[in-house]
Amino acid sequence: MSMTLMLIAHLSDLHLYTERSETGQAPPDIRYIVEQIVSDLLSLEPRPDLVVISGDLADGGTDDDYQLIRQLLTPLPMPIMAVPGNHDRREAMRRVLGGWLVGLQEGKFLHSRVNINGVTLLGLDSVIVGKPQGALCRERLNWLEGELRKAQPLTFLVMHHPPFMTGNPHWDAYSLIEGRERFRQIIDASPKRILCGHIHQPLHTQWGPHYGAIAGSPAFQYNLVPGSAATPIEHNVSYCYPLHCCQPDGSVLVHLRHIT
Ligand SMILES: [Fe+2]
């Protein structure tokens, strides 16, 4: 493995919209918050090598929503990789962002494959059309299995719906409802780093040999209390995004960048 220091910024759940917020929860000033994130990314020296977005780029997913996303993120000089979330729309996302996102694969799913500086990143489309929950059907897991045969030892998997438990029964019922077991069998041959969204609260887990991380949302965040069965409610807390720093020795540091 030949690797130099590589920085991966993990964003998620931007929930950008132009006319109408599908959730009704994304604040009208979300585009300005995203501009602050872009400013922070541009202020870093060395610059991150890659930005990954683990779904819910849009809050409804019209062509105009994706045009806005593209316009806001265009100042970033580094490649951007993204998977869809349950508030995205595959057709519009591919139509507007298809030639612009890095590593996007052809076909009905919006999977991605990126090899950069000795690291492999695979983006998995876990969307079930019309449902908040996610699925990894046989076709998607077969794709993953084939890709993992060609992957570098340091591999990141990016997907909207967490395949691991979050510690909250409400969210676990709204996460990946199909394919968890086979997904785990497929990836278990070597440790992976799994980056997710959907939960709108930062969370880290050691899941068997794998590291898993959920990034918070700059649009709105939930108060997920560990061990509580209560339905999480929104709360107003500061936002931060993780910066994964892949070291030449194969280890990975995770720094948090706070946006005020
Ligand atoms: Fe979301």
Automatic annotation (TrEMBL):
Q: Which InterPro entries match?
A: Calcineurin-like_PHP, CNP_phosphodiesterase-III, GpdQ_beta-strand, GpdQ_catalytic, Metallo-depent_PP-like
> Where is the signal peptide, in residue numbers?
none
Gene Ontology molecular function: hydrolase activity; metal ion binding
Which SUPFAM superfamilies does UniProt cross-reference here?
A: Metallo-dependent phosphatases
Q: Which UniProt keywords apply?
A: Hydrolase, Iron, Metal-binding
What family is it from? Belongs to the cyclic nucleotide phosphodiesterase class-III family.
Supply the PANTHER family for this chain: CYCLIC NUCLEOTIDE PHOSPHODIESTERASE CBUA0032-RELATED, PHOSPHOHYDROLASE
Organism field: Vreelandella nanhaiensis
Residues in domain Calcineurin-like phosphoesterase? 6-202
Pfam family name, one: Metallophos
Spell out the protein name for this chain.
Phosphodiesterase
